[in-house]
Amino acid sequence: MSWEQFVQYLMTGLTAGCIYALVGLGFTIVYAVTGIINFAQGEFVMLGGMISYELAVSAGMPLWPAVLLSVLIAAAVGALLYVLGIRPARKASLVSLIIITIGASILIRGVAGELWGKNPVRPPAFSGEEALQILGARIQPQAIWIIGATFVIMIILHVFFAYTMMGKALKASSVSRLGAGLVGIDTRMMALAGFCLAAMLGGIAGVITAPLTTTSYSMGAMLGVKGFVAAAIGGFKSQLAAVVGGIAIGIIESFVVAANWGPFTSNYKDAIALIVLLVILLVRSGRIASEERAS
Amino acid sequence: MRRWFKLPLVAMLLVVALPLAACGSDGSSTDNEPYKVGAVFAVTGFNSPLGTPEKQTVDMMVKQINDNGGINGHPLEVTVYDTKSDSPTCLIMAQKLIDDGVVAIIGPSGTGESLAIVDAVTAAQIPLVACAAGQGIVIPDSTKPNEPRYWVFSTPQFDVFAVTRLYQYMKDHGITRIATISDTGGFGKSGKAVLEDATRLASYGLTLTASETFDPVNDTSMQVQLSRIKNSSPDAVICWGTNPGPALVARDMKTLGMQTPLFCSHGIANKEFITVGGSAVNGVILPAGKLSVADQLPESDAQKQVLVQYKSDFESIYGTGSANGFGGYAYDALSIVVAALTKAGPDRAKVRDEIEKTTNFAGTAGIFNMSSTNHNGLQLDCFVMVKIVDGKWTWLQS
Q1: Is the dihedral of CA A42, A48, A51, A53 positive or negative?
Q2: Coil, strand or helix: which one is B106?
Q3: Could you say which of A255, A269, B107, B340 would form a disulfide bridge with B40 (CB–CB 3.0 to 4.6 Å)?
Q4: How far apart are the first and last CA of chain A?
Q5: CA B334 remoteness from chain centre
Q6: Contact B220/A54, CB-based, under 8 Å?
Q7: Chain B contacts of A267, Cβ < 8 Å?
Q8: A120–B217 CB contact, under 8 Å
């Protein structure tokens, strides 16, 4: 493998990994605030991409307003999911709530398929499609956007949770809902904010990746799985671990496809994330269960 | 602007559950008993870009036929069931159609789904006209190409015609070293087998320099596979798959600065390839059914009339540029069944016999000449070579 090829594979993997990381971040936020694993997270990515296409191409809006509006609409759908799906059932067990999110993901996918059709679409790239040379590798400018956005978002989230009142309140609700309530934090409001924020992140991931990867009504499912695995690496608690995990999966996938070794051709690329998931579940299941009991 | 207003609907529909419109047919008030035909299409799921235009085509044709007085005065009733792109579901739905008492079944959309129901239709002694391309649907044993399944027919062009056409073109243009990249779905897999057949490669003087695959749904970058192909320095790259994968292959070849010409399959011949691929797909050459270049064909072409008619009928309902070969397969299948019903009436065995007698029928996929030894009936000439020039399908007259 030449140096140029190595960099090429690395950058391809890094780009894919950042997409998984963005989806994984959404999982960690909802989990932190509500304890729910939101299986509709991948659908927000799809919504972001599809809506930005509808606005920027079908409706002819300028790109940046279209992108911004798409993210806001995705966030609004996240809020609706909480208000209409999760909140009325808040007395139900966590498992029931998780099943509600699975139902919501099927509903969102179905509605999107009916509204926008089944064919893949691709919104315009943010800064053209002339490939850039980086360390001998050639990559699309949109890939730089994806990688850059992931790191910027990670830093913003860190600052938000560590230094702002709202962020601290969210964090407090995640540590102990009862305790947070006792000190005057409106935990239901926090749960709403958590869903909104996660959906917004999903929307951002969608608008930013769709110009590179294309999008279609059904693309949320597999992205959801990859993001889930990324988040699971950190036990759904650590955002840093979710980002590192997502990027690791992306890079491993890229090199496995590149190696084309034995059974691990691109046919089985998606198995990698699932194998990682199995390992995590085996290693961490004891810890996750004991944490559940403690909270 | 119309679609813009649909956006708030997403929110609204989250409140009220989506009522999935049942797809029945409007019972015309004729005294005569309706002729019942069944259809199984992948209206949802990963094959929905195929199944959706197929269902739309059937809806359109049923209306046209009944507006013109039906079949010998009998209204045509087509029940369409969604297979969800899933073989077990397809089998259940086909069984349901058989129990409903339909005379014939058209569809399914995918090769896997079709293979799942060939035994059931054979057992029920009901003719099936499949809209999927796999040769194995009609020919159970590839070593005996003249012994098709008795009750099973199909309308799409076989892969082997497309590959033969493509290899002939390559030979004529002095291409000898080729690399393939195919999708891991049914379409790519069966295409890959035909493409990489050693005897076929040898007979056209071709050498295979690399053979790569990609996942049709989840691979969003082809750069890794293409870097490997680039290193093998072929004269041409052949990408065998359905959208959007091949469009991404075209884009990533540009990203990697590859000058090698890209050839694709007939699986991409619909407008999504160009809308998704943008300027990167200019210069792509492929063997395609004539539908994509219908308006460029000479008047003398036997298919010209049906192609132009189908295209304008379909696009007047579903929008400019919406007609594609998949809907065409359903058009051909239903047309053949309707012609048989006209002659034989609602009798399954007689309808089967009439389908088998289909000769010189100009459909959208080609000229059909079926017989007891050929249940597809198309020839090599069903494909033309097409090049994408400035975002338009352009016929390469040979």
Answers
A1: negative
A2: strand
A3: B107
A4: 49
A5: 14
A6: no
A7: 184, 213, 215
A8: no
pLDDT, one tens digit per residue, over A163-221 is: 999 888 888 887 887 888 888 888 888 999 999 999 999 999 999 999 998 898 888 88
B224, B225, B255: residue with CB nearest A139: B255
| Cβ neighbours of B122 (radius 10 Å) | 14
Tokens of A80: 């609706």
* Interval B129-178: pLDDT, tens: 999 988 889 999 888 989 999 999 999 999 899 999 999 999 999 999 99
Rounded Cα–Cα distance for residues A20 and B137 (Å): 39
CA distance B255 to chain A (A): 5
Cα B287 to the center of its chain, rounded Å: 14
Q: Torsion angle of alpha carbons B330, B335, B336, B339, nearest 10°?
A: 160
Rounded Cα gap, residues B319 and B15, in angstroms: 30
- Judged by a CB distance cut-off of 8 A, whether residue A186 touches chain B is no
Q: Rounded to whole angstroms, what are the CA distances from B142 to A28, B2, B150, B281?
A: 53, 50, 15, 35
Q: Which residues contact B16 (CB under 8 A, 6 or more apart)?
A: none
Rounded CA gap, B191 and B159, in Å?
Answer: 6
Q: Return the H-helix or E-strand segment holding A35.
A: none
Of B13, B220, B278, the CB nearest to A212: B220
Q: Is the ipTM of this complex over 0.90?
A: no
Q: Return the sign of the alpha-carbon dihedral for residues B286, B311, B77, B333.
A: negative
Strand locations in chain B, DSSP E?
35-41, 76-82, 104-106, 128-130, 152-154, 177-183, 207-214, 236-240, 262-264, 285-288, 361-362, 367-368, 384-389, 392-395
Helix (H) or strand (E) holding B322: none
Q: Kindly determine whether residue A266 and residue B219, on different chains, have CB atoms separated by under 8 Å.
A: yes
**Vertex B47, ends A109 and B391: CA angle to 5°?**
95
Write the residue in B215, B254, B272 that is nearest to A266 by C-beta. B215
User: Quick one: how many helices (H) and strands (E) in chain B?
Assistant: 13, 14
Distance CA(A262)–CA(B65), nearest Å, equals: 55
Ordered DSSP codes for B117-183: HHHHHHHHT--EEE----GGGT-S-TT-TT---TTEEE-SPPHHHHHHHHHHHHHHTT--EEEEEEE
What average pLDDT is seen over chain B? 89
For B47, residues 6+ apart whose C-beta sits below 8 A from its C-beta are B83, B85, B109, B110, B113
On chain B, the residues whose CB falls within 8 A of the CB of A140 are 251, 255
- CA–CA distance from A114 to each of A199, A224, B7, B69, B361 (Å)? 21, 21, 12, 32, 35
The answer to whether A120 faces chain B, any CB pair under 8 Å, is yes
pTM: 0.81
Q: Residue A250: name the closest of A232, A221, A227, A279 by CA.
A: A227
CB-closest option in A77, A119, A257 to B10: A77
